[in-house]
């Protein structure tokens, strides 16, 4: 077998500023005087200008580049420290948008604008997890415009009157887990909440919420306090009481022995 060696001609690359100067002036001799082939220079005139992204630090010296790198490192360390502090405060405060309402549409617009700006360098999933905002609710803010000036359906009670609000769910939880209502069945508790004007929900909804959130009802039994001091008399023969003792005989029968005792002297009278 004969291996055919193919030599590829290296492609020349020229500065984009020279190409833009030829295209802007229409004079190819500016490039040909600097060693650019005439065909290449004329080809630049026939093509449209291309957008080139350049770095503004290309003209800096090595010492200036090192100073720029150190300056950027200090800035990154400062931003990382501020981000760690913000994350620590966020975790301590237990901030979440899961059960919070934002009635003002401008607040939602500010959050969406900040997410769009940060999405250029941070994934959307990480941003929503940092804000503790569900993706479905975030996309609902963008899609829907409600008549009550709220952008999401879950935060607007007027859109679905049968849907319970987070505050009503908290009231149901407080009544289910309250020790004062431990003797009331869950179905009766739903009717009691309607009579008290707290929550208007069917007993089936109460059972579903108890099962969904795993609420445990208090099952503490209340026993009356037992008296520690029995019956006491002040003189003899004031009160008698009878003590009964069961005696098992050898033939299997039982004999009952009754003793009449004086409560004051503790003597057996009969």
Topology:
Layout (H helix, E strand, L loop, with lengths): L15 H10 L3 H4 L5 H9 L15 H32 L11 H14 L5 H8 L3 H9 L22 H12 L8 H11 L6 H11 L26 E9 L5 E9 L8
Antiparallel strand pairs: 1-2
Please tell me about this protein's structure.
This protein is mainly alpha-helical and 270 residues long. It folds into five domains: 16-46, no CATH class; 61-94; 96-160, no CATH class; 166-213; 234-270. The chain contains ten helices and two strands. The chain has helices at 16-25, 29-32, 38-46, 62-93, 105-118, 124-131, 135-143, 166-177, 186-196, 203-213, and strands spanning 240-248, 254-262. A two-stranded antiparallel ribbon has the order 1-2. Helix 9 packs across helix 10 (203-213). The N and C termini lie far apart (134 Å). Mean pLDDT is 79; it is low at 145-151.
Short characterization:
By secondary structure, this protein is mainly α. It has ten helices and two strands.
